[in-house]
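User: I'm curious whether this sequence folds into something compact or stays loose and floppy. Could you predict its structure so I can see for myself?
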Amino acid sequence: MLLQLALAAFVVGAKAVPSPQTLDSSLTLLIDNDLQGVDGSASKSGVLLLEARSLDAACKACKAVGEDLWSPESGIENIKKNLDYLKYVDSGSDDSRFWIASNNGSAQAIDLDGNTSRARPDVELPVLCTQSAPFSNETSQDASEKWQVTVKSNNEVLTGYRDHLSFRFLGIRYAPQPKRFTYSEPYVGNGGNVSALKYNSECVQAGNVGAEDCLFLNVWTTYIPGPESAANKLKPVMFWIHGGAFINGSPNDPTFDGGNLATRGDVIVVTVTYRLSTLGFLALDDGVTNGNYGIADQINALDWVRKNIKDFGGDPDRITIFGQSAGAGSVRALLASPKAAGKFAGAIQMSNVGGTKYDMTYSKYYTIAEEMEVAGNAILKDAGCANATSKLDCLQDVSPQTLVGLSDTARWPVVDGTYLISDALQLDGPTLPVRIMMGITRNDGGPFISFPTTTNETEYLISQGFDVPPADLFPVADIENKTLALFEMGTRLVTDGVFRCDAHATAYAGLQNGRFNPVYLYEFNRTYQLSAWPGIDLCQPPKSAGHPDGDPNAEYLKCHSGELYYVFGNLARQNLPLRDEFDLPFERLIVDSFSSFARSFNPNPDPEFLEARGYTSTLEEIESSGEWLPSTVEGDMTMRTLQWPSIQGPFTETEQCEGLGLGLGYYLS
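Assistant: Here's the prediction. I'll summarize afterward.
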């Protein structure tokens, strides 16, 4: 490890990379990000904002970051929305003018209305530099010296880089490699120079993937504070916890690239690794090996963010944790954990698993004794450690890939008495000082039930681990394709029993007991299925001559993970086609709504913010469809159906949830 740090320091030290200290300025990247990538307005609208100085110093500062003073020849109309945004947030300049390129030898400035005028070269004005760093994508990451920037944080100098949309600091260590089956400790740098130019290792998971030295995080920001920057300039932080059933997944997945969300949403995005599978969750009944190492890693990463994120422009008191699937289960566990209390202000739970069948994995926690019975004893036996004098020492000698590749794995939080002290999130008691948003996709359960090979309903459902539900509540459609009809009924059953009913009952109990503030609930009724998973044709909209990439307004299953491209705004980045005229405005609406929750704990963006940024499609959609309303203890249980246009309405499937024994009062009894 020391050799790696030394090599990184040598590479980084080969060139004087600019920093807020060497520039004596904050760095702010301003861009009109319409989420169309190189084909959109972002390609022409980018500028870098530096703090006030003379014209000569302004020219030198732009050169130091590999740029020039911005020129009106580029088109004032291209940066007008950036100027409007500065007017909205208050640029802090007394006369609201900025240095730009000189005209015929005359010093020239521009004001917030786009008017240019002469200025004395010795006047100190903030600076607008060009922004010529290239777009990055999944396969093209230009981290060459020209675009690099350093930040002093956590007692080390981190070198990241700027692409066209954000500053990117990747693979930042937040914990040293812990000894196996022990809790990670905070990492503090040794004062050296460290590269943050590329992703670091994933955590060990099946398929010969990852390493045990894997506790790193990634940061995307558009604002790096300078030595004298005001604290009120800090931006809210969105802290992403990836899913993957607690056995696989990575924050380095290009689906979760935070550049678009950070830029358009005016937030800082952080994604984190945590230990997975048996290495992250095994508990033994030895009084020492208590499990929850992956949850503890997440809390350790939160501590790093709270301590250091201000160096990257983030506000440690405005952190929203958000995660999907097992990531949502992590959000729920952090809400329940005394060790995480007070470390975040907002929480977004996306497609958490609860209710029937899978609830002991994500929402209701085994005791250590129960975990031993379910998996621990089998793991010890299969690893050849069941009769060892020290089972723990024996497991330390087993290769990590062997442990995660056994037929039984530990993949759930447990009641360890420290990180989790009860068998579920307590939905009564004092009001949590956290604002909450939660929801599902309409057919979340589709990938978790196999397509039938029989038309016998009882035989099929039992083979999937489910009881036959009341026929009047879950009828099988009378269509020609009998197996399709059975699959669609099964999808409805799994979605209700595993996703929908739990989310609704959680919100209801938390509100009725005064545990939650108003809760914003949603259901995605437009999705864009991931390219690599689940690979089910029914989760894709039907294709036709008029819609060769699929018609999202036609009927199809809105399956698990189908919201992720939208939430991170990465359709264009992934080179995915827009399937109809609504995919793009819907993607913008979702980014705008989720980031608004991080900024204000309300998914309805400030109309003045939307006006200033030029986010007209989102503004018009909200004006047309009305605001997203929360569920409250005084009012009705209400949710937002996220489609184009979106609609507000009562909870769906309430009769079905009652029939499954998972009604609104499920957590009240």
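Summary: The chain has three domains: 2-130, 145-415, 435-659. The longest strand covers residues 314-324.
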